[in-house]
Write a structure and sequence with these properties.
Blueprint lengths: L3 E5 L3 H13 L3 E5 L2 H10 L4 E5 L7 H11 L5 E5 L4 H10 L3 E4 L4 H14 L15 E4 L2 E4 L4 E3 L5 E3 L2 H12 L4 E3 H8 L5 H18 L5 E6 L3 E6 H5 L1
Helix pairs in contact: 2-3, 4-8, 6-8
């Protein structure tokens, strides 16, 4: 089955070229010229990836994605823009964008970024410590159920995670009790290391820390200027 992309771009010439090229390299593409049609299309179809122009004729691309994320908080998406402004990039990353591409761009680079994101969003490789078929990871006094994207707490309540938070949590768990460099995390989960993605990582670490406050055994410690240590106290005692 082909991976399905919702492409939202109001520039007809650019839209036509990008749609044809993405189809040429094997994607199924639904192209919409405005936010209204894109939202209607999203409600009736499933998409592996969204590519959304920030400046649309009838809406703000940020607002469109925020509406879509209310329907599916784990949706992967890329923003396109003709504006290379820091505030726009930060807003896009805060919404949860997987990438932010400034026009004009190389179409082959766009395809590569799409493929990298889709590949990263597949389940992370599981080491021998955890069965590859297991959807449950036990982390000290916590249980992470990957298929549900839920972290179960000692008091039997649970916290829902976004797909990116779940990927980060699993990666840190599989490399527990050792120093994890920020650059290595960014390259593993985002495919590149830059300032804006680093800010996005800070947000996800903060969210995970908030969830881990419910645990007496699991924590994320800062290693100043280097990265983090995902610690499980129960294992450290052995």
């Amino acid at each position: 089955m082909k991976q399905h992309i919702l492409f939202v771009e109001d520039e007809r010439d650019l839209g036509n070229v990008v749609k044809q090229y993405l189809e040429l390299v094997g994607f199924e593409v639904t192209w919409c010229l405005n936010a209204h049609d894109a939202f209607d299309a999203y409600k009736i179809s499933k998409f592996h990836m969204l590519i959304v122009d920030v400046q649309l004729v009838d809406s703000d691309g940020f607002e469109l994605v925020e509406k879509i994320k209310k329907l599916n908080k784990n949706q992967s998406f890329i923003f396109l823009t003709a504006r290379n402004e820091k505030n726009d990039r930060l807003r896009g990353l805060k919404i949860g964008a997987d990438d932010y591409i400034v026009k004009p761009f190389d179409i082959d680079e766009l395809v590569l970024r799409i493929k990298n994101i889709l590949k990263r969003n597949e389940p992370l490789y599981v080491t021998e410590e955890v069965s590859a078929t297991s959807n449950e990871l036990r982390m000290g006094d916590l249980i992470f159920k990957k298929d549900l994207l839920k972290l179960f707490l000692p008091n039997n309540s649970s916290i829902s995670l976004t797909l990116r938070e779940a990927q980060l949590l699993e990666y840190m768990f599989l490399h527990q009790n050792r120093i994890l460099k920020r650059a290595d995390i960014l390259l593993e989960l985002w495919g590149e290391n830059d300032y804006f993605l680093g800010r996005s990582l800070d947000v996800f670490i903060s969210r995970l820390r908030k969830a881990l406050n419910h645990s007496s055994e699991v924590s994320i410690q800062n290693v100043y200027g280097v990265g983090y240590i995902f610690s499980i106290a129960e294992l450290l005692k052995n």
